[in-house]
Amino acid sequence: MADFKIWMNGKVVPGEQAVLPVNSAAVFYATNCFEGLRAYWNADDGEMYGFRLAEHFARLRESMKMMRFSVPSSDVDLYEAVREVIKANGVREDIHMHLVAYVLGTGLDATTPTGLYINPRRRPSAPAGLRCCVSSWTRTNDNAIPIRLKSGSNYQNGRLATLQAKADGYDTPILLNQSGTVAEGTGATFFMVRRGVLLTPPLTADILESITRTTLLSDVIPELRLEVQEREIARTELYVADEAFLCGSGYEITPILSIDRFPLGTGEVGPITKKLSRAYMDLVRGVDKRHSEWRTPVYKPMGVTAAR
Ligand SMILES: Cc1ncc(COP(=O)(O)O)c(C=O)c1O
Fold first, then answer.
1. How many structural domains are present in the chain?
2. Is 274 a catalytic residue?
């Protein structure tokens, strides 16, 4: 099947027409802010649901603020753009999208114009289990290029770590921060289980303020009556974890089977990871009907009132 059409600055266009000017900082410095989000097909409802769009738009705005971009679109415009691109492509399957705001010109002026595009694409769900390493690359620090800011330029840090991990025979790296404690994966937040308790690094550990992490902490984990602690995690705690997983809009909940070749627990996906993954997938798809405010329908008239 052909690639999906792209929404770019108010129009839905074929992929080959969605181009960026070569003399823009968007191209030569990756001066952009973006969100990675998913929409899920619910066959029973005959509907596509965008998951937690309001939170993605809010984070995009925060990134744009920190990058000193002008913010030309309202949330209502963004909701409409996401729904429009899915409808224009007639999508009735799970998809991932990047919503990218980029600067034209040099980007060294806070009034520089920005553009926006949304590129739906197929992204298969999580693989069965990852073999991770602890990267020798350090997670960028909040005083350098803060990871709280979701800009394409930040992702060179994760790219270097990923290529190194693959060259060394692993699937993906886990990055430590400058203090030497666990930060996160390259595009996902980290959780582990030890002695029945879930652990995840705090928001001050040079991690992204992940929407999936928040969904787990505020809803899925309490709903399953599991115990969780947000606290610093030392490197060697990784090696004695009973279970671990990476989570994110793209990763969903992806189990980790080993770290630096130490098998975790039995070396199979653990029971807590399985439970969380099932509960999370039911929630995002709307099989679990709670929190309908988190799922924006695409084909029905929109029932969400977004702030301007
Ligand atoms: C560096 C990084 N950490 C964590 C995440 C997970 O964030 P979210 O759950 O909001 O998708 C992402 C995904 O975008 C990411 O790029």
1. 2
2. no
Q: Which residue has the higher pLDDT, 307 or 259?
A: 259
Give the three-state DSSP class for 177. Answer: coil
Looking at residue 272, its amino acid is: I
Strand partners, 189: 247
Mutate to test the pocket of ligand 1, among 96, 149, 151, 189 (most ligand atoms within 8 A of CB): 189
Above 60 in pLDDT, residue 306?
A: no
The torsion defined by the Cα of 225, 230, 231 and 235, in degrees rounded to 10, comes to 80
- Between the CA of 248 and the centroid of ligand 1 the distance, in Å, is 5
Tokens of 160: 């270097």
Question: What separation in Å is there between the alpha carbon of 300 and the centre of ligand 1?
Answer: 28
Q: Is the pLDDT of residue 212 over 70?
A: yes
Active-site position among 5, 11, 150, 289: 150
109, 136: one domain: no
Here the CATH number for the domain that contains residue 246 is 3.20.10.10
pLDDT score, position 307: 43
Is 305 domain-assigned?
A: no
Residue 137 and residue 230 share a domain: yes
